[in-house]
Amino acid sequence: MTGYLMRNIFNKKLTSELTEIKLTESGFSINKPFGAKPKLFDWKEINSVQFSENRNEVIFEKADKKIGLKNNNIGWYEFIQNVPTRFKEFDFNYVSEFMNSLKPCGVCGIVAVKENVCIVCETITWNNEVAENEIEFIKSKQSELYSELIKDGIEIKKVAEPEHGFKADKNWKLYI
Ligand SMILES: [Zn+2]
């Protein structure tokens, strides 16, 4: 799985990981890669929205069609936080518990660490088993993460900004 930050850089042949969900004024759009036109959906035409049993997917129903959105789709975490409350079958408690359980990532500065791996940049959280020095570890991971930007002469932002529905860590530091 490629982190959100890297997907715009590497053109992977994984349709699911490059599919992007965007919120619109009255619904959302699903944009599959490789030239397909985005599909627009209005909440009004959706009959139900539910998580799959393993919670890795959201399945919504339109007419008699069931459409699944996977958690590696770009924008999925923002999507699950914006499902209208009228969809009573949707597990809103799970969404808030999940988002509240996330921890800040020292490497990219986004509050997206779940079970010691960042959902956004996919770095493993530092502990004294992966490296001796935490700052050195973060520094080397930041160099890896931003290497393409550095190569292209693009300035890396020094303050983390919220993205893809995740909060940013105000205390985040860029060490490179
Ligand atoms: Zn991260």
Please outline the helices and strands.
Blueprint: H1 4-7, H2 15-18, E1 20-23, E2 27-31, E3 39-42, E4 46-51, E5 57-62, E6 65-70, H3 76-80, H4 92-101, E7 103-104, E8 111-114, E9 117-118, H5 134-145, H6 147-151
Antiparallel strand pairs: 1-2, 2-3, 4-5, 5-6, 7-8, 8-9
This protein binds zinc ion.
Keywords:
176 residues; alpha+beta; PH-domain like; 3-stranded antiparallel sheet; 6 helices
What does this protein look like?
- The protein is α+β, with helices and mostly antiparallel strands and 176 residues long.
- The chain has two domains: 4-97, PH-domain like (Roll), CATH 2.30.29; 102-176, no CATH class.
- Helices cover 23% and strands 22% of the residues.
- It has six helices and nine strands.
- The protein has helices spanning 4-7, 15-18, 76-80, 92-101, 134-145, 147-151; strands at residues 20-23, 27-31, 39-42, 46-51, 57-62, 65-70, 103-104, 111-114, 117-118.
- A three-stranded antiparallel sheet has the order 1-2-3. Strands 4-5-6 form a three-stranded antiparallel sheet, with no helix packed on it. Strands 7-8-9 form a three-stranded antiparallel sheet, covered by helices on one side.
- The chain is elongated and about 55 Å long.
- The relative contact order is 0.14.
- Mean pLDDT is 89; it is low at 9-13.
- The structure holds zinc ion.
- Zinc ion binds next to loops.
- Zinc ion binds at residues 105, 107-108, 110, 112, 118, 120-121, 123.
